[in-house]
Structures are given as structure tokens and as C-alpha cells.
Amino acid sequence: MMANTGAGETPAIRIEGVSKSFGGVPAVAGVSLDIARGEFFCLVGASGSGKTTLLRLIAGFETPDSGRVLIDGEDMTSRPPYARPVNMMFQSYALFPHLTVADNVAFGLEEERRPRNEIRERVSAALAMFDMGTYGARKPHQLSGGQRQRVALARALVKNPKILLLDEPLGALDKKLRERAQLELVALRERVGITFVMVTHDQEEAMSMASRIALMRDGALCQVGTPRELYDAPQSRFAADFFGVANLFGGRVTKAGAAVDCTEVWSTLAVKDDCTQGADVTVMVRPEHIALSKDAPAQPNVLAGTLGNIVFLGNAYVCYVTLETGKTVQARLGPADMARLGAIEAGDAVYLSWDPAAARVLTS
Amino acid sequence: MSMMAGAGRGLRRVILGATTAWLLAFTLLPVLIVVAVSLSEPRLGAPPFTPLFEWGAGFWPVFNGTIASYLTVASDSLYVAAFVSSLRIAATSAMITLVIAYPMAYAIARASDRARFVLLMLVILPFWTSFLIRTYAWTGLLNTNGLINNTLINLGVISQPLTLLHTEFAVHLGIVYSYLPFMVLPIYAVLERMDWLLIEAAQDLGSRPYRAFFRVTLPLSLPGAFAGWLLVFIPALGEFIIPDLLGGPDTLMLGRVLWTEFFNNRDWPVASALAVVLLLVVLLSALLLVKALQRRDAAP
Q1: B220 and A59: CB-CB below 8 Å?
Q2: Of A88, A94, A100, the CB nearest to B198
Q3: Using 50, 70 and 90 to split pLDDT, how confident is the model at B297?
Q4: Among A208, A351, B198, B212, which is 20 to 30 Å from A337 by CA?
Q5: Residue B69, burial from CB neighbour count under 10 angstroms (0-12, 13-18, 19+)
Q6: Nearest-Cα residue of chain A relative to residue B196
Q7: Tens digit of pLDDT for each residue in B244-286?
Q8: d(Cα A30, Cα B234) in Å, to the nearest integer?
Q9: Backbone phi, then psi, for A43, in 5-degree steps?
């Protein structure tokens, strides 16, 4: 499942120093990126981060101001969208309202001037693949949101593209449907074997679906890696905060690779990550790595505080603890930990602690 | 909540009632009067037709209706020719208007917001002056020694002035010129609402831009083109001012024939019969077009 770039193989998509600005405002700034064959690659970022522009540059709807876009080693930079071996699934699905479901799916094959028989066979195969075989004669407005999404997928995949681009493909679905559709999309990619590139603003969606993720910010790549890498080893405060919940403590390294003096929490925190003495850094600890106790444990990284809210999530509890400095720290406890802790309520004095190995030192 | 709904229903009744009353009084009633006149007989005097009902000896009024005027309209080749020629001129000029208006509407719909406002104003601008005066102005342009002929002669393109005015060409020109906005606006309205992502989707699926236009943009804008076509065709069918000012003696159009019957021959019943037949023709063609559109939309 995890795809490796490099290793001599030509990447499915190579983006070389691509920049694009609209009316003087840069949307994508000097992005270089390789996406390997068979990846489920996610472009994630807030709105305006340039992720959609990057997708449109791959599709050919935008031409870069500088840089090149290569697909399977072939330069596509100046090729129009209708001549690229790429198909896109639009956020709004962009189904043709005047055509039936079957005609929508047949559209791309008709443009290739395929024989009539072949078109009919491939259309019905594509519709059958998405359980839409009996809906061929319907018009798009007669379908539910989930059905439209599947027609849009069938229409994009029936042309056997080398790459499928998905622009917020699940954005229009409700929560329940979306979770199922996420699994279906991942399974679909494994079945068809081609490269998927998906744009989403939803970090959870990206984490649960992608083989690799590119986090974008202000038109540039912030960090590229597997979901685990991005979650466990973020390289910046921004990345740490974007994926999951992070407790961030700003400070200065007092002992290289060992101690950070954090004014925010009035104490020196022990760390194990590499860091150079005197550098301004941020110590990041995920809530699930923080333990809560009524008595001070005998270990490094103990912070005293007052328990604020306890939020019950069903399978876990999130405890908000306010330190003496006024900073609030989140700790996430499982039901077993909570039971061990015994009776506890807001206002109680508690101690937070964590293993130095669980803390990440972020230099930016 | 229920009180508000009650008040809303009351208000709706008032508005619907007022609208219905207005339509009955000012649309249906005049039409009925025209129908009544068409069924009576002409006579000298005021009004120049016999009353449809007369109170005689009996309890019920006597009905004096006759379809003689309709028989006249159907049998006189002049009227039949006027119908055929009106239909032909209205249809061809509506087609020409469509061909000119579509690219205009397309360009306006794709223009930037600022340019779009200016262009729309330019389309609507002619409405701010009198239709009669604008049509009359064309006589000055098309005359034997008018602006167009003089310019062409001065440029040496022609030696003899062209006969432009009082021709069927001038009538077409007048209709196209006058009714262009009625075609541009409904097409523009449809194109402006269109989701241009559909064009990107077509291109993504392999359509070159012109193919995307013919397979997506054009079919989706057909309702606007139909509406515009009706808005030009229907008034052009009964047009009087344009054929009267720009048309020649041989340009036979219903509007002029109607005028002649009413004011020169003072044969109100025949004129009314012509008007009723014209109304039926218009209604029928409109109905056919609407039905065709509905069939197209309802197709599963």
C-alpha cells in the first residue's frame, strides 16, 4: 500500500518548480513534488492554500507561470486538458444535466470516437461497477447525492485514465455516507490500480485514505509524508496543529537533544529529539501521550494544574487542565485510565506527565 | 405561526385575485369583444357592425352571429397570402435575429462583471427612445439618397443608388434591429446561469472547446433560444409599423392588412376575424414550442 518514490521508477506525476499566480497573487509558489504510480495521494490544506490550483494544474485547466508538469515522464505543461491522460471528478460532480446517466458516462468515450458497441459495453460495465446498472436511463437530477457521486466516478474512470483527480469528492455527502464512501474510494483505487490524487480540507479524511499526504500552506508544500509521519513526526507547529490535536509549548533549548526551557509552563521539559542548544523551538505532545494523576509521579515532565472540563467522547475522555501559568493542556484518557484515576471532578488539583520520548521538538 | 400562515394565505388570495381580475378585464374581455365583432356583420354607421344579440319579441335575445367574415378571410387569396408572407417574414427574421443574438449573449455572459454591465446597458439602451422614431430613422439611412447610398457612391463602390428602402430586405432589417434585445436577453439569462464547470468537465473528458460548446453549452441554452425566438416571432407576425415604414407596396404583412380593413375599408368584422385567426396561429405555434420543450425536458 505504501508507495515509494524514486527507486529509478518514473513517477506518475512529477511537478517541477511550478508557480502560478492570479492577478499578481501567488496561488502556487515553487512547488516540486513526485507522486508515484498507484499512490492514493492527498493534497491537504486550508482554503486558499493552493491545493485546488495544484490539482487544476495537473488536470490542465491552468497553465503554470513557471515550472513543468510531467505525467509518466512526458511533459504536459502546454497540453490542453482534453489531451491529457487524466480525468477529474469534480466537487459538484459536474454531471451534464441534459444527458442521461448512461450518456454522461458515454460522453468521454464518444469524444474518443470509439465504436458504438465498445462504448455500450464499457458504459454498462462502468455503471455495473458502481451498482448503477439500472439507472442508465435516469437524468442526474433524479438521483440522490451518493448516486450522483458514483456516476461521476464512473464517468471519470470509464476512460481508463492513468491518473484520477478528485476535487473534494466527498464534500457534498453527509457524514454517514462520507465514511462509507471513504472506504469505497480506497478499495476502488486498489481495484483499478491507477494513481489517485485527491484534494481535501479535511485532515481526518486525508489521514484515513491517503498513502501519502502533502500539506499545503500559502501555495507551498509544508510537509509531505505518510499519514503516520505527519501525525507522529510533524516538522512544524502548523503541521502538528493541522493533523490532530497538539499541546504546544514554546521554549529554548538549554541542553542539546535533552532539555527545553519553556517559559509558557514555568519549567524545563525533557526531550529526546535532536535539537541544538540555544535554538527557539516548540515542544509538541499529543493528548493521548499525557497521563493524569492525583499525586506527583516520580519522573521528568510533570506539570501541576487544575482540572477544568472533562469531555466524554464515548471511547475516551478529554481532560482540560489549566496550569499555573494559565495555559490549558489537553490529556486524552481511555476508560481504563479514567477508572484507575478514581473519583475526580473539575477543580481538583492534578498532575500531568509524559515520557520524554513522546515529545516532539519542532524547530518551526 | 398558524396566524401568520393564515395572514399569508389571505394576502396571497388578494394578490392572486387582483391579478386574475386584471387579466380578465384587460386581456380576456378585449379578446372576447374582438371575437364578438368578428361574428357580426358590417354596416354603415357607428359602430360599423351589427349587434351580436338583439332583444326581439321573445324572452331570450336573438343571436345574430355569422361566420361570413371568416369565410371571407379563408376564401380571399389576399388574406391567405398575407398570412403566409407574415409567417415567412417573421420566421426568417426571427432566425436571423437568433444567429446574431446568440454570439452577443454568449460574449456578454462570458465578459467580466464590469464589462457585462456596460454591454447589457448597450443592449437595453435603444428601449429608452421611441420605437417609432428608431424605425423612422432607418428610412433616412436606407433612402435612395440616404446615408448608406451616399456613402457607397462617394466611396465609388456603386454608381447607381441601391433600392434599399421599401423592400422586404428593409422589413427584415427593421425587425432584426428592433427585436434583437428580446433575443439577447433570454439567451443571456440562460448562459449566465449555466455552470461553466460543465465545460471544464467536457474538456476533461476529451472535448475540444468547440465540441464542448456544441455538446454542452448549446443544448443547455436551447430554452433561452426558444424563448427568444418566440419573443421575436410573435410580435413580428403582427408587426405594423416596420412593414408600413420600411416595407414596399408588395410587402404583404398582416398588420398592414388589418389596418387597411379597420381604417380604410371600415370592415371591422373582417379585421376582427383576421385578428382572431392571427391570435390562434400565435397561440398554436407557442403551444407547439412549449410542448416540444417539455417533451425534451421530460424525456427520461
Answers
A1: no
A2: A94
A3: low
A4: A208
A5: buried
A6: A94
A7: 999 988 888 999 999 999 889 889 999 999 999 999 988 988 8
A8: 59
A9: -100, 120
- List Cβ neighbours of B34 (8 Å cut-off, separation of 6 or more): B272, B275, B276
pLDDT at B184 over 90: yes
Element at A283 (helix H, strand E): strand A280-285
By three-state DSSP, how is residue B265 classified? Answer: coil
The CA distance from B165 to B144, in Å, is 7
Q: Where does the pLDDT of residue A263 fall: very low under 50, low under 70, confident under 90, or very high at 90 and above? A: confident
Q: Kindly give, in sequence order, each residue whose CB lies less than 8 Å from that of residue B101, ignoring residues fewer than 6 positions away.
A: B180, B183, B184, B187, B228
- Containing A220, the helix (H) or strand (E) segment is strand A220-225
- Average pLDDT score over residue span A218-232: 94
The least confident of A9-18, A261-270, B240-249, B266-275 is A261-270
SS3 assignment, position A114: coil
* Closest partner CB to A111 (pick from B200, B206, B219): B206
In this structure, what C-alpha cell is assigned to residue A175?
Answer: 457524514
Helix, strand, or coil (residue A317) = strand
Name the nearest CA neighbour of A31 among A21, A39, A40. A21
- A97 DSSP assignment: T
Q: What are the beta bridge partners of residue A172?
A: none
pLDDT at A30 (0 to 100): 93
In the predicted structure, residue B150 carries a pLDDT above the cut 50: yes
Distance CA B199, CA B267 (A): 57
For residues A191 and A257, give the distance between their C-alpha atoms in angstroms, rounded to a whole number. 45
Query: Does residue B211 sit at the A interface (CB-CB below 8 Å)?
Result: yes
Nearest to A200 by CA among A1, A78, A338, A47: A47
Q: Where does the pLDDT of residue A4 fall: very low under 50, low under 70, confident under 90, or very high at 90 and above?
A: very low
Contact B205 A94 (CB under 8 A): no
Gap between the terminal Cα atoms of chain A:
31
The band of A261, judged by pLDDT with boundaries at 50, 70 and 90, is confident
In A, what residues contact B, Cβ < 8 A?
59, 61, 80-82, 86-88, 90, 92, 94-98, 100, 107-108, 111-112, 137-139, 155-156, 159
Torsion of CA B159, B160, B165, B166, to 10 degrees: -160
Residue B59 or A195, more confident: A195
B220 chain-A contacts, CB cut-off 8 A:
97-98
CA distance A136 to chain B (A): 10
Nearest CA to A35 out of A17, A15, A13 is that of: A13
For B2-22, what is each residue's pLDDT tens digit? 555 566 788 889 999 999 999
> Which residues of chain B have a CB within 8 Å of the CB of A82?
203-208
A111 Cβ contact partners less than 8 Å away, ≥ 6 residues apart: A82, B205, B206, B207, B211
**To the nearest 10°, the Cα dihedral for B251, B254, B255, B261?**
110
CB contact under 8 A, A107 and B204: no
Binned at pLDDT 50, 70 and 90, residue A8 comes out as low
The answer to ipTM > 0.90 is no
Identify the structural domains of chain B with CATH numbers, from first to last.
70-298 (1.10.3720.10)
Cβ within 8 Å, pair B195-A92: yes
DSSP one-letter code for A226: -
How far apart (Å, rounded) are the C-alpha atoms in residues B142 and B150?
A: 10
How far B207 CA lies from chain A's nearest CA (Å)? Answer: 6
